Amino acid sequence: MSPAWPPAFRWGDRTLVMGILNLTPDSFSDGGRFVAPEAALRRARLLHRQGADLLDLGGQSTRPGAVDVGADVEGARVLPALQAIRAALPSPEAGGPLLSIDTFRAPVAEAALAAGAHWINDVSAGRRDPALLAVVAAAGCPCVLMHSRGDSRTMDGLARYDDVTAEVRQELLRATERALAAGVRPERILWDPGLGFAKSTAHNLALLRHLALLRAEGFPLLVGPSRKRFIGEVLAEPRPRARLWGTAAVCAQAIAAGADVLRVHDVTPVLQTARMADALCRAPVASD
Q: Please, which of 9, 49, 100, 153 could form a disulfide with 119 given CB 3.0 to 4.6 Å?
């Protein structure tokens, strides 16, 4: 069975940092920079040196308006990089990162798990390819169920809520019921509120203020705010790579509300942010 978490790790001990590795030409922030397996491996080595607990490899852009490339193209982007990284970096037991695959397709998930991936991170929570949940169940691996609506072409038009936190909670609970029915073990499930997916800036901010209501359901919570459009709108900053400190502020708020994993591009500054926030929010208070 794939290792579930970093060795000797318990949820609540500290916040994990997941480094993003986009293997696509069209991702909103760093598209095209790491498409070649050699470039992907260099990036993976850097993220590992910076202290990433996990690396999240994705071969299908999910930004608004992205083109759906299909399983064959996605797999051809992901598998060579995954194999190179697995061969070059230490195993998790030896201090290396866990390897997550950002996919909503069962064939890609199955091939990646066979090639040595440890986690599956599904932006559709099993909605777009329900067969992915059976793949996860058979592997016994962790799976991130992220809230979203529609797809890259339609999600912006589906950002309509009366109470965004309550509705995201209900939709994640329904996704969890589907996962459990497919055989996924409850202790292998993580939730992601899906910041930026079918959500306006106001929706994202409301979710961040009330993340504790999602964490109260008992599933570890992954939050991925890195460089996103809503941060740019709040800061009046159109350049994604210039949104680091806004991202760090969101990460600190997420930890205070109970987040367990942060998915980010900029590992070093976010790792520092997480360690300080952990000391403030997680560490027991010393007695006088």
A: 100
